[in-house]
Design goal:
By secondary structure, the protein is α/β, with parallel strands linked by helices. It contains 22 helices and nine strands. The chain has a five-stranded parallel beta sheet, sandwiched between helices. It has a four-stranded antiparallel beta sheet with strand order 7-8-6-9, sandwiched between helices. A hairpin with a 2-residue loop joins strand 7 and strand 8. This is DNA-binding response regulator.
């Protein structure tokens, strides 16, 4: 209802207007009445009406003076003037003050009703305009939506004014993108629930604002997330609010200008898309992926198909020989291979399915797996497609293969080669020679070299070098000096270690340690 105040010095007229007009049917309600302009001012301040109906001729303060006072005070209500005199001068003054109607006493009900309908239309338009302005200019969430979807021809001054009016002109901005890991059918509900929880948790503490932009929820924080501890705290808060809903969250980094929020948003979305290759159970960051860490090998330029066949072969013999220490290293090498092929997460899962299936089939053929064990294998292989993070997939695959290895155990004609591989893993740092192993296994050195190459695909010295280089990478990642690593892995000469490392890794140990 539109609130109305009637001001007239004649009590009968005030009473008559209240009873003769069907106010409620027209969408109005009488808030109060007054006998002069001065009394009306106090009522208007208290009631805040949208329509004033005032007589011109009144004691103390007449109707035109009242309207003039209201306009000077920037009151925007609609006004209808009543006059007992059909005087054009009054009409001209009333028009100057922007009145919505000028009616001559005695008031005609039909004429008053028609005027009220016109005024109602004007008031409703003004309400819509105010609501639109309030929504567009004073709503921080809509302003953020505009910053996340910039228009090419957006006027920078207008945009900056909107940012200032919505209270988003901060010294720092950090944008966080959250992606619930749910089905499309459940996405809308999950976004709404998580967004509502975050609004309550974040906005009430004035940490920033929250908005939805399917398939994401976006947090715009007003302070940078400096340090791992602060990022972990935010991630834990999101996880607490999310409950059982799985999600991925990433920051786009800190910016100091609101116009740069969009770039941070793009970076955060990219980090979310790369989440499978990143660290699990933490707030992700642009460009920081798991496979860029030192423990993942820098692969040579060999043909990928050849590298994969070699990986399957080495994993199979490591498992069959009981060489537990090599399994995770080889799985990480496989992950690096698939990433080098620019595979997306779905393709990586498929590649791990193929890799693991090929190894299990080789082991099963020699171990005669029971049917009930093959059912367990089938469940594991199908579960490969459910992992959100590569690290989880690697750890579960590693755990499963080790259990499988316990069941299969080493056996067969290749026992000697398996012993050699195990011996190399344990004694790589010593002055290890093929002739020494040949003596231990009671073979001639040339024959054992041929046998080793036929079973592993590598010359003995090449295989030993690769094991040493892999160990060197682990030690360098721990912060050890290059000369210390060279000595620990069995190279007497630092220069010789440099040449070997560069041969297999394509860069020097120093470059690997400090990329």
């Amino acid at each position: 209802m539109i609130k109305v105040v009637i001001v007239d010095d004649e009590p009968k007229l005030r009473q008559g207007l209240q009873t003769l007009i069907a106010w409620e049917n027209l969408g109005f309600t009488i808030a109060a009445t007054a006998g002069n302009g001065r009394d009306a001012l106090k009522i208007i301040e208290d009631e805040e009406p949208e329509l004033l109906i005032a007589d011109i001729r009144m004691p103390v303060m007449d109707g035109l003076q009242l309207i003039q006072h209201l306009r000077s005070a920037d009151h925007q209500m609609q006004c209808i003037i009543l006059s007992g005199y059909a005087d054009f001068e009054y009409a001209k003054q009333a028009i100057k003050y922007g009145v919505a109607g000028y009616l001559v006493k005695p008031v005609n009900i039909a004429e008053m009703t028609a005027t009220l309908k016109l005024v109602r239309g004007q008031i409703e338009k003004e309400r819509l305009r105010r609501d639109w302005n309030r929504t567009q200019v004073n709503n921080p969430e809509l302003c953020l939506q505009k910053l996340l979807n910039p228009e090419k021809n957006e006027d920078p001054a207008t945009l900056r004014s909107m940012i200032r009016q919505t209270g988003l002109l901060w010294s720092h901005y950090e944008i966080v993108v959250i992606s619930p890991r749910v089905s499309e059918a459940d996405r809308s509900e999950s976004l709404s629930q998580l967004s509502a929880g975050l609004k309550q948790g974040m906005e009430e503490r004035n940490m920033g604002i929250v908005t939805e932009s399917s398939p994401y929820i976006i947090l715009l924080l007003n302070a940078p997330l400096h340090g791992r501890q602060r990022r972990d705290q935010l991630y834990d808060e999101i996880r607490c609010i999310a409950g059982d809903t799985r999600f991925i969250a990433a920051t786009g980094g800190t910016v100091t200008e609101p116009e740069h929020i969009y770039n941070a948003y793009v970076n955060a979305r990219q980090a979310v898309k790369q989440a499978f290759f990143s660290f699990n159970d933490r707030l992700l960051e642009p460009g920081l992926i798991l496979l860029s860490s030192p423990e993942y090998p820098c692969l040579s330029g060999e043909a990928d198909e050849k590298v994969l066949d070699n990986l399957i072969f080495r994993l199979y013999y490591s498992l069959d020989a009981g060489n537990k220490s090599m399994v995770m290293l080889l799985l990480k090498e496989a992950a690096a291979l698939f990433y080098r092929q620019e595979q997306e997460e779905k393709s990586v899962r498929q590649s791990f399915f193929f890799l693991t299936n090929a190894i299990i089939h080789r082991l099963a053929a020699s171990s005669r797996i029971e049917p009930k064990e093959m059912e367990s294998v089938s469940r594991f292989l199908n579960g490969i497609y459910q992992y959100d993070y590569l690290l989880d997939l690697l750890e579960e695959t590693h755990h499963f293969l080790l259990e499988f290895m316990e069941d299969s155990g080493p056996k067969g004609k290749e026992q000697e080669i398996k012993q050699m591989i195990d011996f190399i893993q344990r004694h790589y740092a010593e002055d290890l020679r093929l002739s020494t192993l040949a003596g231990l296994l009671n073979y001639s050195t040339p024959y054992l070299g041929q046998l080793f190459r036929s079973k592993t695909g590598e010359y003995f010295n090449t295989y030993l070098d690769k094991v040493r280089i892999q160990k060197a990478k682990e030690l360098l990642a721990q912060g050890m000096k290059v000369y210390e690593v060279a000595e620990l892995i069995g190279y007497a000469s630092v220069n010789y270690f440099f040449s070997k490392f560069k041969k297999y890794e394509g860069r020097s140990p120093s470059e690997y340690k400090n990329p």
